């Protein structure tokens, strides 16, 4: 595979926009110096796959353009065919939040897409789950070891008796005590736990295990008006660990019996709530996987579904392109409000947006956060942004929503679950085994090479767009149908087949005491 055969695999690059003066090399394992493209451009140096080469001469200080936008300025003169690597690029400043255009280019609604459905679990509140899971909430980290012990027994001894229940999940975390629970920012982890408890995949069977003396009391964890069962390990009538575990198991069994009555029923695609995120991005993310996801996003929104995109630090540098798409001026101002909040949060911690790009992103050809952001926002498709959620807030409307979260894969996943997603679509260039126990995750690779090497971890190969095997439109439709299949339980993503899942991880911007 590493032997280059120019006859079978001629040198190819992808230029995304007519204004671009750089393009990325498509061929697996990159191209050596001297490789000549069909248009006569010859490489002056080895260029790794996904990295940029200059299409024309770029003078020192002149803009470097990708996606038709400026991703930086040349630190030195660059010649056609040069490898435009990170050290040659000065990063531009982030868009000025006071100067962004608000709702100036709101897209008109696309025609409704009728006739698509999935087999889901409808809840009494009207929401629809894609799985049937018993979730056991916890109010404090102190009970985590006990919960692991109890869940192991529940899975071994009880779950086989209730074949219509998919899984038992303990919502464990590091919060609950030793934290400034009345600090203004404590609202984020608290509402996240409250909203997690009522995720549609959990069927409204809320159960909480607490310790008893913690700051975040077990009662406080469940939203008012929600039926719940609560037990505390310190309750006077519980003598010893055996009795504690028996109490947890009997409460669990009562809920398993209710959940076991649930059956899938045909629901319109409008009942889907899909989260989007990326992790381990590369230069192909914005060329293959994210455009395919963006096309599927447009289809889902046209079908009346809810789609959330997130990751503040990966939209901040392209926020000027998003505020224009706001459905109303209020939505545009809410986008700006979330960016301002995060700018201040990073500043308080002595960091800035440049902290986002990882060594793997850079190895994959992404020079900086500007280039990463331009590729990231493509996931949001082309429609109007109809709402904004602060971290961990529950979605109140359908359509395309921006759910403000950090870009951290685990924290973004946790916050989107709190906001009510019942499935996630996750794009990756470098590769990650990421999965969530609470909702199926479809992993989309940006490159075919990764999809082949990780054939039992990647669910969808968007690299076929770069090789010309598929158009963005074809890939978008295929992904849309896969989403309906996974939502219906007809197809299981690889992370679920292996049972590999990441921890839920709370976002706590408030002080720890
Ligand atoms: Ca991420």
Structural description of this entry:
- The chain is an alpha/beta fold and 513 residues long.
- It has 3 domains: 1-90, Archaeosine Trna-guanine Transglycosylase, Chain: A, domain 4, CATH 2.30.130; 133-259, Rossmann fold, CATH 3.40.50; 291-498.
- It is built from 13 helices and 20 strands.
- The strands form 5 sheets. Strands 16-17-15-14-18-19-20 form a 7-stranded parallel sheet, with helices on both faces.
- Helix 1 packs across helix 3 (240-259) and helix 2 (187-197) packs across helix 9 (409-418).
- It starts with 12 loop residues before the first strand and ends in a 15-residue tail after the last helix.
- The mean pLDDT is 95.
- Bound molecules: calcium ion.
- The site of calcium ion (CA) has 7 residues, from strand 14 and helix 9.
Question: What ligands are attached or bound here?
Answer: calcium ion
Q: What radius of gyration results from the CA coordinates?
A: 24 Å
| Strands, total number | 20
Shape: globular
Portion of residues in beta strands equals 15-25%
Instruction: Work out the helicity level.
Output: 25-40%
Low-confidence stretches: none
How many discrete structural domains? 3
Protein structure class: alpha/beta
* Average pLDDT figure: 95
The largest beta-sheet arranges its strands as 16-17-15-14-18-19-20
Taking the sheet with the most strands, its summary is: 7 strands, parallel
Number of helical stretches of at least 4 residues = 13
Distance between the termini: 55 Å
Sum up the structure in keywords.
alpha/beta; Archaeosine Trna-guanine Transglycosylase, Chain: A, domain 4; 3 domains; 7-stranded parallel β-sheet; 4-stranded parallel β-sheet; binds calcium ion
